[in-house]
Amino acid sequence: MRRLPPYQLGLWLTAYVNGRCPLCRIHPCARLPSASQYPAVARRALLCAACHQHITWLPAPFEVDFAIEQPLVIQAATYYDYPIRQAISAFKQHEDLTRLPILVHLLRQLPRPKGCHAGNSVIVPMPTTDARLIKRGFDPVTVLSQHLSHHWRIPLWHGAVRTDNTVSQRGLSRAERLSNLDNAFDVNTICPARHLLLFDDVATTGASLQALARTLITHHPRASLTAFALAHGSQDR
User: What per-residue confidence (pLDDT) applies to 70?
Assistant: First the structure.
């Protein structure tokens, strides 16, 4: 019997076996409309209706400059507040598969950019270093970007690489984040698409996405760049 990938198995257990919302753990997951893009066997949301309605979706996009007169627009699925912050941390730091369905539900709220499709676009996951990958044991951004790729039906492109071992961005000011990311990325192959859709799990200040965009536009000056994240900022601020 073929072994199921652990990440996919976690989603199936939530949606089809347990059927309970992984956020409140009380109510059943909501049903998706019959006209949903998902097949009949998968027409169950990954959160209950109450939890879904409690979350503020798609906060206003924000911009960071990455080239002369070229702002990078960053759209997050929601705010980086409780309980989303805890779900992201549990998955990133401890590979807690019970939190993954929550994050995939967030991904499904991100609208595919107009005019972007598999023939002209690629998703560019935020790269990580080999040292960080070995220490953590898995790459959470790549796992999440694979689900985003499936949701949008747009392929991933791994031509961007992390070239250094900069310290973690957590706790740094915006100026420190930008300095920390000097020469942090490189491109090792030609991108086959015109639209580059950058993706990271959390966009705190947008510094990492900004630095990645600067590297990409240097190698692909005619490309259009847009960025997306699971969460950004706080609704209380």
Answer: 84
